[in-house]
């Protein structure tokens, strides 16, 4: 069984946005508070006690969760500026790897905070990225790669992935999905019946084929109006239809998406707005 946890579902600025006085940014609904986008994927080789969907935790985003028990493997996709708080909120104590989608700061700025995992697990954290994204990590965190590394600097085990070559991480079989983020190539990932695409605004048919029949599709939907580098809600829904995803969750949303409570019932069947802390179980 896989368990997907939404660590953050907000666009690069997060929601609320600094200085904004709109009704979404002023909302007290925890589902309108969106940290920078990231997901955690855990695998339970022997399924824990199955809970019906309505018993899934519905705590507000700022509550502390008990530690997820007994996961056999745990990875996250992206480590943005909210990574530290997201790890604390979810009570994460061990992390097998991080997969990166691209090098924008809202997806990599939190890498320095892997130091706790270095310390407690006594090893470098494997970080999987394409060659270009790896170069950006080396540049942005140059002190972690220095010849005489400062003691206490993060220990990063950078591993290069290639566009069309599936790879294995901590027992997960991972299929990279390539897309476009305006002019920047971006990588999504399919792991079993789950796929995670963020910061896409274009994908070609060969890559779409890799998503065919996915059970859970997570896909970025910034807002309703057309955008130069992100799918809109309608574009995300269209991709979901084309690949026949059974359940689709929208992420990387801006405050322009509107209040969760107002908008949650406006999507077609099988498509939902994700929110921070939402957990999905996938057989
Ligand atoms: Zn982003
Ligand atoms: Zn706002
Ligand atoms: Zn981006």
Automatic annotation (TrEMBL):
InterPro entries per UniProt: Metallo-B-lactamas (IPR001279), RibonucZ/Hydroxyglut_hydro (IPR036866)
Classification via Pfam families: Lactamase_B_2
Metallo-beta-lactamase domain boundaries: 74-253
Coiled-coil blocks: none
Name this polypeptide is given: Beta-lactamase
UniProt organism field: Alistipes inops
């Amino acid at each position: 069984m896989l368990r997907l946890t939404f660590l953050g579902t907000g666009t690069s600025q997060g929601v609320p946005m600094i200085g904004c006085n709109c009704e979404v940014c002023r909302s007290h609904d925890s589902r309108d508070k969106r940290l920078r986008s990231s997901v955690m994927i855990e695998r339970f080789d022997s399924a824990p006690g199955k809970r019906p969907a309505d018993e899934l935790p519905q705590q507000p985003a700022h509550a502390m969760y008990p530690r997820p028990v007994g996961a056999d493997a745990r990875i996250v996709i992206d480590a943005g500026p909210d990574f530290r708080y997201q790890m604390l909120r979810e009570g994460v104590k061990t992390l097998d790897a991080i997969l990166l989608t691209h090098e924008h700061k809202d997806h990599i700025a939190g890498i320095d905070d892997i130091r706790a995992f270095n310390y407690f697990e006594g090893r470098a954290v494997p970080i999987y990225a394409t060659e270009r994204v790896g170069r950006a990590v080396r540049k942005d965190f140059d002190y972690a790669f220095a010849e005489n590394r400062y003691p206490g600097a993060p220990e990063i085990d950078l591993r290069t992935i290639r566009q069309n070559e599936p790879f294995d991480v901590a027992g997960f079989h991972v299929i990279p999905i390539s897309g476009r983020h305006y002019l920047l190539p971006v990588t999504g990932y399919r792991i079993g019946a789950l796929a995670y695409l963020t910061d896409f605004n274009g994908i070609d048919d060969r890559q779409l084929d890799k998503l065919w029949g996915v059970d859970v599709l997570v896909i970025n939907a910034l807002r309703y109006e057309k955008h130069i580098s992100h799918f809109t809600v309608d574009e995300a829904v269209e991709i979901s239809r084309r690949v026949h995803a059974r359940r689709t969750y929208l992420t990387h949303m801006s405050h322009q998406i509107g209040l969760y409570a107002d908008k949650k019932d406006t999507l077609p069947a099988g498509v939902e707005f994700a929110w921070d802390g939402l957990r999905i179980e996938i057989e």
